[in-house]
Every structure is written in C-alpha cells, then in structure tokens.
Specification:
three-stranded antiparallel β-sheet; single chain; mainly beta
Length: 507
Amino acid sequence: TIQIDLTADYSKDTSNPVPSVLLAIAPLPFFPPAAAADIQDPNDFYRVNASNLPFARNEVFGFSGTVTIDLGENATFKSITAYRNLDGFSTSDPDGTRFRLYDQNTDTDQNQFSQELQIAGNAFNDRLEYLLGAFYFRERAVQALRLCFAPISNSTFVPFGPCNTWTQGNNQKTESYAIFGQGRYNLTERFSVTLGGRYTWDEKDIVSTQFFDFRQDAVGPGAVFGFGFPPALLGQRIVVPIVSNLPDSASFKRFTPKVGVEYNNQNGLLLFASYSKGFRAGGFNGRLIRPQANVPSYAPDTNDAYEAGFKSEFLDNRLRLNGTVFFQEYKGIQQTIADPAIQFRVANAGDARLYGFELELNAAPVQGLRIDAAVGYTHSEFRNTILPIAGNRLPFAPEWTASISVDYAIPLGTAGTLTPHVDYRYQSRVFFSPFNLPFEQQGGFGQANGRVTWQDSTKRYSLSVYGLNLTDEEFYTFGQNALGAQGVAYSYLGRPREFGITAGVSF
C-alpha cells in the first residue's frame, strides 16, 4: 500500500553560446569611430566581430522523492518533495564589435525546494474524479553581473583595450504557497463537467547592489552624463556605490478558476470547451543604472483563456485529427522594455488579445510509417497600452506556423531496426520586442532536419546520424534595437547547417 520513488540527477554543460552581430550603430561619445566597421555584412552572415568569446558553464543537480499511499475506498495520498541547485557562469558580447562597448559576464547561484501534497480519488460510483492538494515552493537566487563598458577615452580606441566597469548584484528569495482542487463529474456516460481552482500566495524579498568604477584615464562625457554623474567626476579613478544593499519586498495573491465541459461519443470523437484564468506574479527590476529610492517593481498580470476543440480517431486509431480554437485576453501584461533609469526592465505594458486555431494530424497508414503534421494561426495585438505599442504584435508570436515529419521503421531482423526521419517546420515573421522595431524582427523562414537511427533487436543500443538546418537557412533568434538607450542594435545568430552522431545505451 506504500510506494516510494527516489530520483537523483546531475548534469554539467560547458559550451559556447551563439554570438551576436552588430546591425546598426548610433555613435555615442565614448564609441570608437572604427566600431562602425563591424556592422554585419549581409554577404558574410556568420562572420563575427567580438571582444570576447561567448562561454557558458552550467552545473545542475537535483533530488526528488515521491511517496504514494493507498488509502482504500478509491483514494490515494501522494507527497512529492524536490530540491534543485544551479551553479552557472556565462560571458557575452552583445554589441558585436571588437571593442569593449558592452562586454559582460554573469555568475548565478540558485537553489529551490518544493513540497506538494495531494489526495486523489473517485467517488459517487466513480462518476466523480477529484484532486485536492497544497503546494509550497522556496527559491534563493543570487546573481552578479559585471559589465565592461565605455573604452577609456585616451586609450586610442585599441580593440580589447581597458574599459570602465559596472558591477550589479541581486539576492532574491521567493516563497510561494498554494491550495488547489479540481473535480471532473460524469453527468452521463458521454457528458462531463470539470471545475477547478487554485489560490496562490507569492512573497518576494530582494537586496540589490550596484557599483561603478571609472578609471583614471577618464571616460567619455556621454557615458558619465548618461549614468547620472556630474562632470566633476571626469578624470578621477573612483568607485561609486549607486545603490548599496537596497532591500525591498512584495507579496502577491490571486485566485484562478477553471471550468470545462467534454462530450465523448465513445466512437472516436471527443468535443471539449474550457475557460481558465492564469496568474503571473509581479517582481523586481534589480538592474539599476541610476540612483533609486527603492528597487522598482512591477505588478502581476492575468490571462483569461477560452478554448474549444475536438479530438478524433479513425481507421482503428491509425488516423487522428485534432483541432482547437482559442481566445485569450491579458490584463497588465508583463513585457521587457528599455528604460534610461533601469536599462532593461519588466513593465506592465497594458492589455493584449490573442486568438487563433491549431490543427494536428497523426497518421500510420502502413506498418512502420508515421506521419505527423500541424498548422497554426495566431492573431495577437496590444490594446489599452501605456506605451506606444497599441496594435503591435506580441513578441515571439508568429501569425502562421506549420510542420510535418515522417518516420519509417525498417525491420532488419536480428540486426535490429533502421529508422529514417525527416521533418520541416515553417514560421512567419516574428518580432523580438513589443515595439516591433526594425532590427528586432525575423522574417518568415523554414528549417529541414533529418536523422537516421539504428537500434539493436534488444532495444538496448542505438546509433544516430543527423543533420540540422539542412538548407542552411540564415536567421536570428533574438535581437534588440537599443540605438536610443545604448547606441547599438544587435541580433543573435541562429545555428547554421550542422551534422552529428549520437550513441546511446539503456540499462
């Protein structure tokens, strides 16, 4: 009547993240004139100019334990306990030039603990399926970011030369509590109703610290004025505490309901509709670059989501067709924006609306062959905004997406199975920020990938050869038009065509 499952995991990833490239520059007083020569050449897409090598190291480990107790009378008690730790370090050069305009490295230490209790079961002759529970979460995150910026003005603008520094640190603790419940009642053999709800309390505490170090060789006046310092500081080597151990705290609470209906004709067709409310807690903007009385914060946002659709199966489950239409409304939606006082911050930008549909097809016409295809449409726009973004599309929300993949397992007798796989995915234009600015978007493009996998007859060993982005599509994954705030616009490169081999063993 008691089952205990224990899990432990460890991973260490040392790699070079994709670099950024300079798309445009609006020279600030401390920018070397030669930096403009590092603007990306569209005919040499993957050529990178950088003053450091992007590097990342992430070490993660965790433990979890699940205790399940059979309470009898169609009821089960479950306790889920988990702990996770992250130790990370990364470097980057977002400006994409050979000069130290904005080089940074970041140390991150984070750990979290969670505890969840559940009681689940059936009642009323199995017509009611229910789940009741409570949840606790605690996180501690400490991050130190060091920015090397503004090459020293009389250093003759030599690439990789000395620069001024800004060190920013944040130490935040988050605690979250919740109680929740959901029930699904079968009114008839074919028709059911679902009701659920969750009440969440979030508490956040932060200590934010900032330091500037202007070197003796002086810094361009644009940098000094831009960060709020008087001209008298020019030519002095100083360490100025902008904010020293500035603490703040905030709490957020919200009830979020859910209601749904389902109709199952018990002949391969399921119809459903639902309404649910989402809640995202507020937080702090700890990346200050000017003196503040407290750590600026942002409020929660909510999302009312409506969904209706169907799931169907035909030809002895060898053909499945699923479809969904959706409508969502955000209130006080959280968005990342540029701000002269905080550089980049999260703000409650106003309201937003999304609607669209998704269709999915899964087919297995003959033994060993599987075809999956999907198409989706999303209309998104900001509404009732406090920023000049009304009518703009939401970031990373393409209007159209489409994908198809094909797998064919070829039996090799005692030698195992050989499975070729090909897939293709297309997405239309996306914007990287709510402002929909030039240099912050990626046009529509598609990617084709392929893989051939061999698996032995015992399914213990496997070997794969793969190719990604086979047509070598050139694209960006993210970009920022910070010409006004930082004098540069830059984007991060998508991965070019690549090939590889993977091997696996199960035991």
